Amino acid sequence: MSAMLQQTELIFEFASDRVNNGLQLDEHLASPAVIVEQIPHSHLLSYSGLACEQTHTDNHLLTTVEGSESGDEETMETLVAAETLLNMDSPDSLSLDQQHYTQLGDVITLPVTHQLTVSVEGIVGALGQPQWVTLQRETVAEQPKKRVKKSKRPESPTPDIIFKRGKYSKGNTMYLWQFLIELLQDRQACPRYIKWTNRHAGIFKLVNSKAVARLWGKHKNKPDMNYETMGRALRYYYQRGILNKVEGQRLVYQFASLPKDIVFISDDEDQEDQANHEDNDEEGVPDDPEESPPSSDQSLDDLGSYEHSFPPPPPSSRPGYQRSRQTSSSPATAQRRQPSPKSNSRSPAPSPAQCKTVIRPPGGSLIQQQHLPIVSAEMLRTLQNVQSLQPGHHGSVFRTAQLLGSLCERQAASGGQTTSQ
DNA sequence: CTTCGGAATG
DNA sequence: ACATTCCGAA
């Protein structure tokens, strides 16, 4: 009983959480969250849908604009205008926590989040830890009651995500990798600007690096952000074991370790393209132009509200991660960093690996704008996904082999390994 | 154009 | 710590 409950709660929870970073959409989500408490899923969704309608407009706009803009800068004007609008009504991903929540009714939202968080977190006992890390820490050993040290990393990047009102603290303290993950879960960006090329392996491609960079810049309020700059940040991730580069393919990177519970949007089982064909990444998705020259972007409005949150520790199945925590918490599984001047032995940053990001299913998510939300199925799926996610730990640096390995692992794991559960 | 790191800076 | 900027070099 409690188990079920928790899951449900979680889901809701992240719905609200997600809001925070919602690039463009957020408010709607918040509302739902509130409702959640009182109502069961279906209702929740319905509500969300309603909420969505409002913002829907913006989203639409955004989408359109971005789509056209993505290809070239010529559309700058349009883009700018769009952005402006966006900003006006929805501060993209930035500070939704405070403002939005407040406006909407933080009272409600906050409580909900808080509660959930507490429940989940409480178990884990992670006080200042980022959601993702939370699990890991616990598993690892975490020196449980050692919050004595808390002072150590009080301000950590995503420390208070949970307890605080939302996830990322007020400003938008989302790391780039987090942002990317979110994007990958965002219907608006996912297939179009960024997409999984092999979800199991954590490999993704920045189709339209420019657009992604722009979004990132928007998020950080750095108008001048560009792929080159963002790329540098990305490169730093290699050393930190957060990302790896998939060589051969151009804008393709791989999460060294990816969250156990990411829910992938779009595609159902995905077309894992291993690395056989080097460059055929698109297929599977029927209609995305991606980088197609023609500017006719059909972008409809999928809008994407991505929700993400941390998963609760499944009650019945506690994730006993098998993660080798050799170096304490190194996410990257002790990957060797070539230079590694300093020995590792510390990985403060929340690595994606441990994080549990749960996303919402696709479908309609809350932002269905026009259509009414229906989500029973989705809910189920989400749950299932959450439970059945696999370990995909370590993604090493190198592609093909790794990929295959991952696949194998996955399969094997599903067969009997267990790890995750 | 993309990719890679070093270096300085916030 | 985590980027952002700038930069010379593949």
UniProtKB/TrEMBL annotation:
<keyword id="KW-0010">Activator</keyword>
<dbReference type="InterPro" id="IPR036388">
    <property type="entry name" value="WH-like_DNA-bd_sf"/>
</dbReference>
<dbReference type="InterPro" id="IPR036390">
    <property type="entry name" value="WH_DNA-bd_sf"/>
</dbReference>
<feature type="domain" description="ETS">
    <location>
        <begin position="174"/>
        <end position="256"/>
    </location>
</feature>
<dbReference type="Pfam" id="PF12310">
    <property type="entry name" value="Elf-1_N"/>
</dbReference>
<dbReference type="GO" id="GO:0000981">
    <property type="term" value="F:DNA-binding transcription factor activity, RNA polymerase II-specific"/>
</dbReference>
<dbReference type="InterPro" id="IPR022084">
    <property type="entry name" value="TF_Elf_N"/>
</dbReference>
<dbReference type="GO" id="GO:0043565">
    <property type="term" value="F:sequence-specific DNA binding"/>
</dbReference>
<feature type="region of interest" description="Disordered">
    <location>
        <begin position="270"/>
        <end position="364"/>
    </location>
</feature>
<dbReference type="GO" id="GO:0030154">
    <property type="term" value="P:cell differentiation"/>
</dbReference>
<protein>
    <recommendedName>
        <fullName>ETS domain-containing protein</fullName>
    </recommendedName>
</protein>
<feature type="compositionally biased region" description="Acidic residues">
    <location>
        <begin position="270"/>
        <end position="291"/>
    </location>
</feature>
<dbReference type="GO" id="GO:0040034">
    <property type="term" value="P:regulation of development, heterochronic"/>
</dbReference>
<feature type="compositionally biased region" description="Polar residues">
    <location>
        <begin position="323"/>
        <end position="348"/>
    </location>
</feature>
<keyword id="KW-0539">Nucleus</keyword>
<keyword id="KW-0804">Transcription</keyword>
<dbReference type="GO" id="GO:0005634">
    <property type="term" value="C:nucleus"/>
</dbReference>
<dbReference type="GO" id="GO:0045893">
    <property type="term" value="P:positive regulation of DNA-templated transcription"/>
</dbReference>
<dbReference type="Pfam" id="PF00178">
    <property type="entry name" value="Ets"/>
</dbReference>
<feature type="compositionally biased region" description="Low complexity">
    <location>
        <begin position="293"/>
        <end position="302"/>
    </location>
</feature>
<keyword id="KW-0805">Transcription regulation</keyword>
<dbReference type="InterPro" id="IPR000418">
    <property type="entry name" value="Ets_dom"/>
</dbReference>
<keyword id="KW-0597">Phosphoprotein</keyword>
<keyword id="KW-0217">Developmental protein</keyword>
<keyword id="KW-0238">DNA-binding</keyword>
<comment type="similarity">
    <text>Belongs to the ETS family.</text>
</comment>
<dbReference type="InterPro" id="IPR046328">
    <property type="entry name" value="ETS_fam"/>
</dbReference>
